[in-house]
Design goal:
Number of helices: 10
Strand order of the largest sheet: 1-2-4-3-5-16-6-15
Mean pLDDT: 96
Structural class: alpha/beta
Protein name: Amidohydrolase
GO biological process, one term: diaminopimelate biosynthetic process
Low-confidence stretches: none
Shape: elongated
Helix content: 25-40%
Largest sheet: 8 strands, mixed
Pfam family, one: M20_dimer
InterPro entries: Amidohydrolase, Bact_exopeptidase_dim_dom, Peptidase_M20, Peptidase_M20_dimer
Bound molecules: zinc ion
CATH class of the largest domain: Alpha Beta
CATH topology of the largest domain: Aminopeptidase
Strand content: 15-25%
GO molecular function: hippurate hydrolase activity; metal ion binding; N-acetyldiaminopimelate deacetylase activity
Amino acid sequence: MDWILEAAEAMGPQLTEWRRWFHANPELSFQEVETSRRVAEILRSFGCTSVRVGVKGTDTGVVADIDPGRPGPCVALRADMDALPIQERGSAPYRSRRDGVMHACGHDAHVTMLLGAAKVLIDMGDRLPGRVRLIFQPSEESPHSSGARAMIEEGVLDGVGAIAGLHVWGTMPSGLVGYRVGPFMASADEWECLILGKGGHGAVPHLAADPIVAAGAVITSLQTIVSREVDPLEPAVVTCGHMEAGTTFNVIPDRALLRGTVRTFGRGVWESMPGRLRRICEGICSAMNCRAEVRYNRVLPPTVNHPELTLEAAQVAREMFGPTEVQEIPPTMGAEDMGLYLEKVPGTFLFLGIMNEAKGVVHPQHHPEYDVDDQVLPRGSALLAVLALRFLSKLS
Ligand SMILES: [Zn+2]
Ligand SMILES: [Zn+2]
């Protein structure tokens, strides 16, 4: 393991240069054309011959297998490549060259760290105890058109026995590895309730069926899902974030529209939510002489880390970087399409701290001054490479 860390550290200046290039050239979800071209070019420069660019008719998404040329298990390492529609406010020489587009979530670092891991693993030649699939996915930031979903439909998980990924995290000290066994990041779903009543004059409500009063009752009753139905020890959120009804003060409209999001961690709760939401919307509306048309969209499942592989990953990180450099961290309410891979194959998603006050790198994810402490890049590359090796040896 030591030699891997040394090899990754020797790549430090190169990793920094790549990261800054990706930072300066951000591309939005499913538009990662130059990014994927550069990734493919770098992988080919390592002697990797299996690079495939383009997923599901788009020009982006890169998959490559590092194949030692003998039978054995296969594990995957995943990075996301897209940037956000944010105007960068930082002043670094490598700040975004594109107006209104910025790597404010560290996906530039994810791409770079995976490239570094790939180099280390490719250099192992036939000493590699199995195949390692590199997944550079497009579109993580646009959950309605998830790049992970597209890659999985394309078959990138075929034959894969385990997967690992890293996310750099702006509120964790530089170099700190954060892990969480089990549910780690929340699901993110979307719902809509169209309430159909009967319009009329605001002065004669008895001749109408008021969808606004029904909407009010639906909004408050939906909160009983979390307060009265879900186990109080299970985190869950039901939010109504949008309502629309009526045109003026003295008319009862014939419809009202509510929209919102649901967040959960536990798979059981996640699965139960559409039924609960539908029952309350329909029941309340029918009690008020209205009718509810409910749509519930699954957007992203919770990201659930495999217990054994996650503890193994934490142990590996402790051995490599020392016990104080690894910490169990609380779950976060944010969602990640890494959860889609982890639904299909066991694996782990870890956080790597990048906050460095001395360098002024102190901003949280999606902040217009977000940056990455490049010093952590070798650590990320080494960790990914060692995780691939550990997971391979577990599967052998
Ligand atoms: Zn993000
Ligand atoms: Zn992200």
